[in-house]
């Protein structure tokens, strides 16, 4: 896991690809993970890496509040895509592997106790390698929620939308987008677990606030 060298063009390209369908390094709000990666970048990403540049400028706006952002800072190599080698932790990983003596010593015949210990460690090692976390299918959805008119209380509308709670549903960032004639729609992002929350359920729950909501549309839908 990692981004590689974020001071190099290759590292920035990895970061840009990573952020193509994500707003933040971890989770759905700015956190210490974003600060760690931000501080590892020497300069703003070039304009053609627009996902990374958008994220960089957004996190830069939190400079005065960065100490108060949630989360605990970890090593840079703990963040990023899983298929990029984390060279920052190579020495530690090597040490951990060295602690497991899979084959014992060839200098002298193994005692029964040493043989038993070696077999136990081998079994633990194989068990550790075979365990893989279950993959949970998730999607990032951008919703357009339209009010009835320009007199609709948009703060209350957003409050109603965010009041919808369900297992596998996490609300993210939002903004108001002008649609004409003084009317603004709420554009809000959420992340859902596919087998628990669907767009039909979201539309049904959101449009139930009929005093504020005229309609709901899916503006963007991306698998994570």
UniProtKB/TrEMBL annotation:
One of its GO terms (cellular component) is eukaryotic translation elongation factor 1 complex. Residues 102-129 form the Elongation factor 1 beta central acidic region eukaryote domain. It holds the Pfam family EF-1_beta_acid. Keywords: Elongation factor, Protein biosynthesis. Residues 83-114 are annotated as: Disordered. InterPro entries: eEF-1beta-like_sf (IPR036219), EF-1_beta_acid_region_euk (IPR018940), EF1B_bsu/dsu (IPR049720), EF1B_bsu/dsu_GNE (IPR014038), Glutathione-S-Trfase_C_sf (IPR036282), Transl_elong_EF1B/ribsomal_bS6 (IPR014717), Transl_elong_EF1B_B/D_CS (IPR001326). CDD domains: EF1B, GST_C_eEF1b_like. Residues 138-224 form the Translation elongation factor EF1B beta/delta subunit guanine nucleotide exchange domain. One of its GO terms (molecular function) is translation elongation factor activity. It comes from the Eukaryota. Residues 95-112 have a biased composition (Acidic residues). Catalytic subunit of the guanine nucleotide exchange factor (GEF) (eEF1B subcomplex) of the eukaryotic elongation factor 1 complex (eEF1). Stimulates the exchange of GDP for GTP on elongation factor 1A (eEF1A), probably by displacing GDP from the nucleotide binding pocket in eEF1A. EF-1 is composed of 4 subunits: alpha, beta (alpha subunit of the eEF1B subcomplex), delta (beta subunit of the eEF1B subcomplex), and gamma (gamma subunit of the eEF1B subcomplex). Interacts with elongation factor EEF1A1. Belongs to the EF-1-beta/EF-1-delta family. PANTHER family: EF-HAND AND COILED-COIL DOMAIN-CONTAINING FAMILY MEMBER, ELONGATION FACTOR 1-BETA. This is Elongation factor 1-beta. It comes from Lophotis ruficrista. The gene is Eef1b.
């Amino acid at each position: 896991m990692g981004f590689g060298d974020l001071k190099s063009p290759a590292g920035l390209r990895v970061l840009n690809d990573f952020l193509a369908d994500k707003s933040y390094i971890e989770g759905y709000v700015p956190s210490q993970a974003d600060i760690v990666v931000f501080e590892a970048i020497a300069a703003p990403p070039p304009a053609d890496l627009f996902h990374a540049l958008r994220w960089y400028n957004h996190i830069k706006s939190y400079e005065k509040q960065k100490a108060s952002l949630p989360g605990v800072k970890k090593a840079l190599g703990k963040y990023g895509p899983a298929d990029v080698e984390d060279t920052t932790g190579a020495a530690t990983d090597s040490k951990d592997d060295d602690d497991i003596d899979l084959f014992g010593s060839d200098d002298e015949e193994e005692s029964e106790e040493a043989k038993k210990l070696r077999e136990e460690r081998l079994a633990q090692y194989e068990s550790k390698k075979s365990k893989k976390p279950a993959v949970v299918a998730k999607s990032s959805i951008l919703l357009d929620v339209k009010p009835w008119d320009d007199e609709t209380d948009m703060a209350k509308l957003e409050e109603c939308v965010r009041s919808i709670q369900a297992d596998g549903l996490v609300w993210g960032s939002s903004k108001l987008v002008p649609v004409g004639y003084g009317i603004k729609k709420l554009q809000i992002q959420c992340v859902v677990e596919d087998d628990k929350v669907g767009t039909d359920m979201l539309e049904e729950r959101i449009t139930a606030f009929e005093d504020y909501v005229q309609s709901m549309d899916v503006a963007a839908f991306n698998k994570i």
